[in-house]
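hey so i finally got around to running the thing on that chain from the lab meeting. sorry it took forever, my laptop kept dying and i had to restart like 3 times. anyway pasting the input first so we r on the same page abt which one it is
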Amino acid sequence: MRVFVTGATGFIGTAIVRELIGAGHQVLGLARSEASSQKLINAGAEVHRGDLEDLDSLRSGAAQADGVIHAGFIHDFTRLAEVCRADSVAIETIGNVLAGSDRPFIITSGSALVSPGRIATEDIIAPVDPAWPRASEQAADAVAALGVNAAVIRLSPSVHGEDDNHGFVSFLVNIAREKGVSAYVGGGLNRWNAVHRFDAAALYRLALEHGTSDAAARFHGVAEEAIPVKSIAEAIGKQLNMPVVSVAHEAAAEHFGWFAHMAAIDCPTSSKRTQEQLNWHSKHSTLLADIESGIYTKN
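ok and heres what got predicted. didnt touch it at all, straight out
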């Protein structure tokens, strides 16, 4: 297939591009700068200039493709509501181009807010959380209602690996360096799920190639179901050689800032159904192994 990929030069997107090209697909990658364009060329992909807020570029990219992977997101959390809305508009724009065709459209969401406090499964339809108003799945459902062959991949709150600069572990490391302690909220028994970015990339390819007949099916990009955040904080503290401390719930906002909600969230997540449907299994390192290897704290 000729696949249009948004976010093609990002942390996850570069792994997706590599995975697709390695499997014999052609990639048309969205690029907003000359540096991003060169990165795509070096990877063996074609360049499509534009960005997530340039709707004409999204339309023309989708029109040229046999399938679309939407892996892009504007990582400006100072204007969270605005960038979440831009994400929904981008999905709707691409979906309108694909409507009436059988071309697959793979849309990115997250697993953290699907079912806080109990294990999340693929069949649970999650409402939008006002604290994190990303509505990718609702936008996916809307385009699926138009007849688009859409599927959602819910990624772990920690998609980890070399060069991760925007993931949740990176935020915890940066906050630890700023505060001088590696912290967790309360008892630290709240759990995150995790996946290596190369395993996530393989899931995108499998969803693109095989997908499902279900409208806006959900797949879980989850290799590890439940890792206590205290264990993550301890691994970071060991690497940074700093104290590991508990922060009371009422003090979390002061310590973690906008990230307090995610630092405290409990989001164990199963990918059993995804593994069975797509024959997807993790092959790469675990989250704690990556932290302990020093890739998050080497600079």
